[in-house]
Write a structure and sequence with these properties.
Structural class: mainly alpha
Keywords: Membrane, Transmembrane, Transmembrane helix
Strand content: under 5%
Number of helices: 3
Shape: rod-shaped
Number of strands: 0
Oligomer: single chain
Length: about 80
């Protein structure tokens, strides 16, 4: 049971991290392009559209990471 939970949570953690990184890179790259091309509306639009989803997925990824850490537990070697 613990191994199955570990596999499921690890997969969910990986997916959440990928989604977070895509959103965060999209936000930063769009804002950088807005700075480069002098388009203030790109900067504001990227922040309005991507900031909140990026923060939410970061929180979800953190919770999944915490769950993975707790499901794995400690091995017998670590307890000695």
């Amino acid at each position: 049971m613990r191994q199955t939970m570990n596999q499921v949570l690890t997969s969910l953690y990986a997916v959440a991290m990928i989604v977070f990184l895509v959103l965060a890179f999209g936000l930063v790259l769009t804002q950088a392009a807005g700075l480069f091309f002098g388009q203030g509306q790109w900067i504001a639009g990227a922040s309005e559209a991507l900031l909140r989803p990026a923060i939410i997925t970061a929180v979800v990824a953190g919770l999944f990471g915490f769950a993975v850490f707790n499901v794995r537990g400690t091995s017998e070697k670590e307890q000695d």
